[in-house]
Specification:
mainly beta
Length: about 90
């Protein structure tokens, strides 16, 4: 089920917080699978950590590649665009 289409900037942000700008009560549920698709024009960088990344490079996903299937664990999923901004769609696998 489609959750949201979001804009990602070139600064590390919690993906959950970006989604909350569209759906105020959204929370990633532990153990649940989410599909994340880069539909923008630039690549997006993802990393799961317990605190905000500094200069780390995570997993880079190019525009229109096959989607990421993300399962929430104990960390927080951070995301940033590799250029100025890009767009993602997020859905759950229910």
């Amino acid at each position: 089920m489609h959750i949201a289409e979001i804009k990602v900037t070139n600064q590390w942000q919690k993906l959950e917080d970006i989604i909350k700008q569209k759906i105020s009560n959204f929370v990633f549920e532990n153990g649940k699978k989410y599909t994340i698709q880069n539909i923008g024009n630039s690549s997006a960088n993802f990393i799961e950590k317990s605190n905000i990344p500094t200069d780390e490079t995570g997993f880079i996903k190019q525009p229109n590649e096959s989607p990421i299937v993300y399962t929430k664990t104990i960390g927080t999923l951070y995301v940033k665009s590799c250029v100025i901004n890009t767009f993602l769609t997020v859905s759950d696998d229910n």
